[in-house]
Amino acid sequence: MVTVASLSPTQRQILTALCRPYKQETPYATPASNQDVAGELFLSVDAVKTHLRTLFHKFHIEDLPQNRKRSRLVELAFGSGAVTERDLEPS
């Protein structure tokens, strides 16, 4: 099981940015795009992709179809407590 302690600060930031569209609690929310995450965190899109690949591995979802990985990662991030509703609030 992935815990907050098992994630680097950057991995937590990536997860939080990925989950941010879920702040509005709309039933049609989708994870943030790589470009959106990169812009929020001042990283390159390639850096975001690299971190996401690592997160897919840590959460054991690397074998899911590409179109399902990001949504499942959001579900698992919230379910594990790695990201909370409070994390989505502006700091």
Would you mind describing this structure in some detail?
With 91 residues, the chain is mainly alpha-helical. Helix content is 53%, strand content 0%. The termini are far apart. The relative contact order is 0.21.
Task: Outline the fold blueprint.
Elements: H1 9-19, H2 34-41, H3 45-58, H4 66-80
Helix pairs in contact: 1-2, 1-3, 2-3
Key structural traits:
single chain; 91 residues; mainly alpha; 4 helices; 53% helix
Major sheet, described briefly?
none
What is the string of helix and strand elements? HHHH
Q: Helix segment count?
A: 4
Structural classification: mainly alpha
Q: Strand portion, in percent?
A: under 5%
Q: Uncertain segments of ≥5 residues (pLDDT<50)?
A: none
Mean pLDDT: 93
Distance between the termini: 27 Å
Strand tally, please?
Answer: 0
Helix content: 40-55%
Radius of gyration: 12 Å
3D shape: globular
Give the gist of this structure:
By secondary structure, the protein is mostly helical.
